[in-house]
Amino acid sequence: MNDIPGIDPTIPPSGTGCVECDAAGGWWVHLRRCAQCGHVGCCDSSPAQHASRHAVDSTHPIAQSFEPGESWFWNYSTEDYYDGPVLAEPQSHPLEQTTPGPAERVPADWRQHVH
Fold first, then answer.
1. Are 62 and 84 in contact (CB under 8 A)?
2. Are the C-beta atoms of residues 32 and 63 closer than 8 Å to each other?
3. Stated pTM of the model
4. Strands 80-82 and 62-65
5. What is residue 5's predicted lDDT score, i.e. its pLDDT?
6. Residue 20 gets which letter from DSSP?
């Protein structure tokens, strides 16, 4: 049983990309995974900033990087890094998925759209 408020290490990620961007045909810079419900959203550098919006709307404050090789957590409530447990697999989006991504939806002038 989970004993860390805001984190459920048994919940897998919602998918390999930002839920909202995928639904709308959008793109992202980096991905973040909600540590409580598994929602995968785009980072605050991305045009739509869905991960932080999810944290506010759902009141799920803790997210983990969903980038290959990164395991850090971020607490949106305290605006600080957080030490968390290993979450359910997979730990990141697929290695072949581009950053930014997905490749076929990233505009040529993508750098002009980041925050």
1. yes
2. yes
3. 0.95
4. unpaired
5. 82
6. H
Contact residues for 94 (Cβ-Cβ < 8 A; gap 6+) = 16
Residues 6 and 60: beta-carbon distance below 8 Å = yes
Q: Tell me, what amino acid is at 107?
A: P
Residue 82: the pLDDT is 87
Q: By C-alpha distance, which of 2, 112, 90, 80 is closest to 40?
A: 90
Neighbours of 31 (CB within 10 A): 29
Q: Which residue has the higher pLDDT, 82 or 108?
A: 108
**CATH of the structural domain 19-104, one choice from 3.40.640.10, 3.40.190.10, 3.30.40.10, 3.40.50.300:** 3.30.40.10
pLDDT at 1: 44
